[in-house]
Amino acid sequence: MPRERGEKVIATNRRARHEYNIEKTYEAGLVLTGTEVKSLRQGRANLSDGYAFIDGGEAWLDAVHIPEYSQGHWTNHSTKRVRKLLLHKDEIIKLSHATSAGGYTLIPLKLYFSDGHAKVEIAIAKGKHEWDKRQTLRERQDKREAERAMRSRNRMGD
Q1: Per-residue pLDDT tens digits for 70-119
Q2: Whole-angstrom Cα distance, residue 44 to residue 97?
Q3: Cα 1 to Cα 156: distance, rounded to the nearest angstrom
Q4: C-beta separation of 52 from 106 below 8 A
């Protein structure tokens, strides 16, 4: 029985939703060393440069920065090592087909503990063009202004 219950988010990749169109998400387990887990429990990680890839029928996570554990010594981990992802075989095949089709990549969106186990949410994503990013920002700003106008209009009616 796990000591912890629920979900505790450690890091999110906010830039990913701006840079990519997210198609589908998957939850994967992570193979970590002891000092990596302790460092994550302190709430420190950076997903902004991270990506995942399929190699030899296995899924891997690369360029995710987990800083060294402060109380660790010679057994400490390297900060940006390649880490294995734990996924079902059929999920790995789906991800492999999606990325080999071209234009799609695997990016980490969120790193968290779920019932005491380290998990990462990865997504099949397609990169946005510059005009797509501007359009998304414009839509978000228009929506915010419309909500603001509705709030002020409702206050005037009271």
Answers
A1: 887 777 888 889 999 999 999 999 999 999 988 899 999 999 999 999 99
A2: 33
A3: 55
A4: yes
